[in-house]
């Protein structure tokens, strides 16, 4: 299967640069995965497509303000540090720009020295391991000094950092938001629950690898990034009860989908567990847990559009994307939504 099979033309002006004032007022393209039929709705209309006995699965990860702008102690030169993975309490794997300037032993100062970091080593791929030094509580200092690490295709500055956070974000650890969840408001979630729909939470900390393009010509040669997940047994039980009773499991986002498919066995039983997943879902994949998917519109030739194509079928997906372009839907993180039912 070729990467170019998942290409579509996307006009630059359809890439959403700002979130809407009302989270739930985005548009919703509804795609029937069995027939390929398309409906054009508002996100509020999601209430028409969820039913008593169904289960909505949300990723409750929280985005860290992981972008730090500092200066090198010995030269005063500006340097940008992006937190990727916490190795232990104060040691992190980070992406540094400009990378060549950060050598082992170098010190970087943030906020006039309120936060300091020593570069310890250079690891595979050019990332750095750094050790932070500070007085107080790291998370509070990060909240004060850090910025939201918006995706590379968003060029506008975000006025309210909470808009790149779901209303149910709880477990801090992501470098990017699980953006399908950005459409939900507390009021809409309440209405969904009033219909008799259960809500289950999983955690997958989204890494920057989610934006990494597929460079291999054959998709099977693509090396998938790993991300850390946690599924509590209590949440797994909610999903298993739903499936046993004949309800639909509706994953909110590709991150929830990848988590669920990572913890579900060949008999369709979801297990409470934690670990790292590098699951790569593409057409031909047999879904074990997920019946329906709420997602945003993704980049051409990305692993995310491949996952959507695995659930809805490649032809149905690309037809829906061409229709979304034609109807001027807003794309990517702050864009409109799609329901695959």
Structural notes for this entry:
It is a single chain. The protein has 341 residues and is an alpha/beta fold. It has 2 domains: 242 residues, QueA-like (3-Layer(aba) Sandwich), CATH 3.40.1780; 79 residues, Thrombin, subunit H (Beta Barrel), CATH 2.40.10.240. 18% of the residues lie in helices and 27% in strands. The protein is built from 6 helices and 17 strands. The chain has a 9-stranded mixed sheet. It has a 6-stranded antiparallel barrel with strand order 5-6-7-10-9-8.
Q: Specify the CATH class of the largest domain.
A: Alpha Beta
The number of distinct structural domains comes to 2
How would you state the average pLDDT, rounded? 94
Helix content: 10-25%
User: How far do the termini sit from each other?
Assistant: 25 Å
Number of continuous helical runs: 6
General shape: globular
What is the count of β-strands?
17
Find the CATH topology of the largest domain.
Answer: QueA-like
**H and E string:** EEEEEEEEEEHEHEEHEHEEHHE
Biggest sheet overview: 9 strands, mixed
What fraction of the residues are assigned to beta strands by DSSP? 25-35%
Content-based structural category: alpha/beta
Parts with pLDDT < 50 across at least 5 consecutive residues = none
Evaluate the radius of gyration: 21 Å
Strands across the major sheet, in which order? 2-1-17-16-14-3-12-13-15
Supply the CATH superfamily name of the largest domain.
QueA-like
């Amino acid at each position: 299967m070729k990467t170019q099979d998942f290409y579509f033309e996307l006009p630059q002006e359809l890439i959403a640069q700002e979130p809407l004032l009302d989270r739930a007022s985005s548009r919703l393209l509804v795609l029937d995965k069995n027939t390929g039929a398309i409906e054009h709705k508002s996100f509020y209309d999601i209430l028409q497509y969820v039913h008593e006995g169904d289960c909505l699965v949300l990723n409750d990860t929280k985005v860290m303000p992981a972008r730090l702008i500092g200066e090198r102690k010995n030269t005063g030169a500006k340097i940008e540090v992006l937190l990727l993975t916490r190795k232990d309490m104060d040691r992190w794997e980070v992406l540094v720009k400009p990378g060549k300037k950060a050598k082992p032993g170098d010190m970087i100062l943030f906020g006039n020295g309120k936060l300091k970091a020593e570069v310890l080593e250079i690891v595979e791929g050019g990332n750095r391991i750094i050790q932070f030094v500070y007085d107080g509580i790291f998370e509070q200092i990060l909240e004060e000094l850090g910025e939201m690490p918006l995706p590379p295709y968003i060029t506008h500055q975000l006025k309210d950092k909470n808009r790149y956070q779901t209303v149910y974000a709880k477990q801090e650890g992501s470098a990017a938001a699980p953006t399908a969840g950005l459409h939900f408001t507390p009021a809409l979630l309440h209405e969904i629950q009033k219909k008799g729909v259960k809500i289950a939470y999983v955690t997958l900390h989204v890494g920057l690898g989610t934006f990494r393009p597929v460079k291999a010509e054959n998709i099977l040669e693509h090396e998938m990034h790993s991300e850390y997940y946690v599924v509590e047994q209590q949440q797994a039980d909610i999903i298993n009860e739903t499936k046993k009773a004949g309800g639909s499991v509706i994953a909110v986002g590709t991150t929830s989908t990848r988590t669920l498919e990572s913890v579900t066995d060949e008999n369709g039983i979801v297990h409470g567990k934690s670990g790292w997943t590098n699951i790569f879902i593409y057409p031909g994949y047999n879904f074990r847990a997920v019946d329906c998917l709420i997602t945003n519109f993704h980049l051409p030739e990305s692993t995310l559009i491949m996952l959507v194509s695995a659930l809805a079928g490649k032809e149905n997906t690309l037809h829906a994307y061409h229709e979304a372009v034609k109807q001027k839907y807003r794309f990517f993180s702050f864009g409109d939504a799609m329901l695959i039912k």
